[in-house]
Amino acid sequence: MKLLAKKDVPEVLRSWSNRFTILSPSRKEQGDCLFDIFDKETFTLEYRKPPMPQKSSFLPQSEVIFTVDQGNYSPLISKGQTLLFGIRACDLSGIRQLKSFYTRDRDDIYFRGRAGGTITVVNTCLWPQNETCFCTTMHSGPYAEKDYDIQLFDMGNAFLVELGSDIGKELTSMEVFAEFDQVDAEERLTRLKHMAYNSIPLVPEVAEAMDILKGTGANDKVWERFGRKCIICGGCVYVCPTCTCYNVVDKTISSDSGERIRSWDACLYGGFTREASGHNPRSTQGLRLKRRHEHKLLYYNMTDNQGALCGCVGCGRCSDYCPVHIGTLEVVKAIVEQTS
Ligand code: SF4
Ligand code: SF4
Questions:
Q1: Which of 82, 114, 121, 78 is nearest to 98 (CA)?
Q2: From atom 8 of ligand 1, which residue's Cα is the shortest distance away?
């Protein structure tokens, strides 16, 4: 285990940027903190849960995935390696879910081009980022148990540095990473993890709602009520680190050339499940909300078998940003109240 002074972090990132594209917390003019290409002028360590997860690094909101010119197909596959600095543990679990989705049935070469070989540096949460965090309930935080290269624990002026891979060891061989007494470090780490875990309250309604969904299903009134409230903005889907829906559109450029564009879509939009015949098996907003939450809380949890891998990682963003309060936290509480 090692120690890294916070004042040295920008120089470390500058050095790593010779090898990787570094995405790190960046303070924007309006005060928001978003992940962006490392720039020491806007880089910050003073950030909470960023409003957007880092999925757009691998799955841009809109991207041209291939072009066709005079019959010649040219895939546009990203090259180079990305290092994500400072992501939260829940968002790391979200990336695991994205990788599972985009590789389990067939290899998505466009996704792999962006995500393959990404190096992750997790900044653990020693306290909840806000009142909607429920990562402990979903086993996705507040620190990572696996799949990280480097993990940081805030100790005031410095980070305690935990290493999770060979590349993590290699990247921290610079002199600014001071060796730390192993026994002392283990003790501090155990204390910090314990404190962090206990600071984020468990939400018992999640397990209760999952049991209800597995059994009789939720009372239809839950979906009807939320269906009447939902304004179909798609916000909950776009801020969700585990949502994967997309659409493709072919754009004609000339009689023998064009391009295919892939863009985020949302299962809460009527057009997403409408079939070519015009029939829509999810014909009401209530049914679409039912489908979304059953995916999050039931189907993914029943079919995936990688421990913490989950359709919802408890980041709480859908509760933070839904303008009419239909986040997962509100949904599980309603399922329990109206069905039991
Ligand atoms: S469903 Fe909501 S709480 Fe769960 S991962 Fe998505 S945005 Fe976060
Ligand atoms: S954020 Fe809220 S209002 Fe918007 S689509 Fe999602 S559930 Fe509906």
A1: 114
A2: 315
| Contact indicator for 35, 68 with CB cutoff of 8 Å | no
Q: DSSP for 77-103, please give it.
A: ---S-EEEEEE-HHHHHHHHHHHHHHH
How many Å apart are CA 292 and CA 280, to the nearest integer?
A: 15
Q: Contact, 328 vs 232, CB < 8 A?
A: no
Q: How far is the CA of 213 from the centre of ligand 2 (A)?
A: 21
Residues 19-73 have pLDDT tens digits of: 999 999 999 888 889 999 999 999 999 999 999 999 998 899 999 999 999 989 9
Whether a cis peptide bond, with omega within 30° of 0, leads into 142 is yes
Cα–Cα distances in Å, from 183 out to 10, 179, 189? 29, 12, 10
C-beta neighbour count of 95 within 10 angstroms: 23
Q: Please state whether 143 falls in left (phi above 0), alpha (psi between -120 and 50) or beta.
A: beta
Nearest CA to ligand 1 atom 4: 312
Write 185-194 long-range contacts (CB < 8 A, 24+): 185/1, 185/160, 186/1, 188/153, 188/155, 188/160, 189/1, 189/153, 189/160, 189/162, 192/124, 192/126, 192/153, 192/155, 192/160, 193/143
Closest Cα to atom 2 of ligand 1: 318
Instruction: Confirm if 4 and 156 have CB atoms less than 8 A apart.
Output: no
CA of 156 to the centre of ligand 1 (A): 30
User: Model's pTM, two decimal places?
Assistant: 0.93
Query: For ligand 2, is residue 195 a contact (CB within 6 Å)?
Result: no
CA atoms within 13 A on the CB side of 104: 11
Task: Determine the distance separating the centroid of ligand 1 and the alpha carbon of 293, expressed in angstroms.
Answer: 10
Cα separation of 162 and 169, whole Å? 9
Question: What is the band of 114 on the pLDDT scale with cuts at 50, 70, 90?
Answer: very high
**pLDDT value of residue 309:** 53
Give the closest ligand to the alpha carbon of residue 267. Answer: 2
Q: What is the pLDDT of residues 209-266, one digit of tens each?
A: 999 999 999 999 999 999 999 999 999 999 999 999 999 999 999 999 999 999 999 9
